[in-house]
Amino acid sequence: MYGWGGDSWGMTGWIIMAVLMVLFWGGVITVIIVVLLRRPHSDQGTNAVRPSHHQAEVILHERFARGEIDETEYLTRRTALRRPE
To answer: What are the sequence ranges of the domains in the chain?
Structure first.
């Protein structure tokens, strides 16, 4: 009998340890990847949060460009969006 438990686990102990080590390091790498992907990218920075009226104007402009609304409706809605709240 060598060591603490002798040879009771044999090759099974080595296989279990190898599988657990792979699972552990796989978990560590997964956590690191998730943290890096959730971090804001450099191109998003502080300008990533835009006022909601800006996004609404972009959508309104796209609808006008596609011909879904006419110029009168476009100007009326844009004026309404730009009014102070």
So the answer is: 1-42, 50-85
